[in-house]
Amino acid sequence: LEMKLEHYKKHPIIKGFRHVLQAETDRKFMLDPQFMKGIGLLSKYNFTYDILIYTDQLQYINKFVAEFPEQKFVIDHLAKPNIKEKSIEEWESDIYAVSEYENVYCKISGMVTETDWKHWEQHDFTPYLDTIVNAFGTDRIMFGSDWPVCLVAATYKNVVEIVSNYFFSFSSTEQSKIFRDNAIYFYNLNNV
Asked: If we measure between CA atoms, which residue out of 124, 127, 104 comes closest to residue 113?
């Protein structure tokens, strides 16, 4: 595994990895010792790790990230809360718990695929965005479009507008962090 990481480190465009944990039948696959062994090598090579999970797996993330305090993690797609059913309490509790780890960020993406694809409104996303901002602050969140997957429910422009409308009243510095600076820092993009 280290030989592969050495190889990837020679390619400056490769900044991190993710495994489609949401597809694993074992919902706590991220705690598998072999999987964790691989994750434990990433920070040595300054690679990031995107956590791609469903909400039912969020309960295991605390134990997972606690093992790697030097590793930069980002939760993709807000961990896919069930926006369509307006389900929030358990997800919200788990999000607040994982946000306690300073090395964990959250990517604001994938929301439109988790709601009614044909009948969503801007306000459907507000409670989830409120939670993410309150939990992570503006220093540990970043925008992601989830393009082209988002196209099942919205255009790229729609997705950008949902997030930019929400953050409209935030300062220009905060908006810059969310839409650019935090991603540059997290993914080490200054040297690309």
From this structure: 124
Strand order across the 16-19 sheet: 16-19, 48-51, 73-75, 104-108, 141-143
- The DSSP code sequence of 151-183 is GGT--HHHHHHHHHHHGGGS-HHHHHIIIIIHH
Tokens read off for 156: 């790229």
10 Å Cβ neighbour count for 147?
13
Instruction: Say what angle helices 33-42 and 2-9 make with each other, to 10 degrees.
Output: 30
pLDDT digits (tens, 9 = 90+) for 30-73: 999 999 999 999 999 999 999 999 999 999 999 999 999 999 99
Q: pTM of this prediction?
A: 0.95
∠12-80-165 over CA atoms, to 5°?
80
Residue 187 dihedral angles phi and psi, to the nearest 5°: -90, 10
HSE at residue 117, side-chain half, CA atoms within 13 A, is 7
Name 64's Cβ contacts closer than 8 Å, sequence gap at least 6. Answer: 30, 31, 36, 39, 51
Contact predicate 39/1, CB 8 Å = no
φ, ψ of residue 131 to 5 degrees: the values are: -60, -45
The answer on pLDDT for 136 being more than 90 is yes
Task: Tokens for 151, please give them.
Answer: 């196209």
3-state SS, residue 114: helix
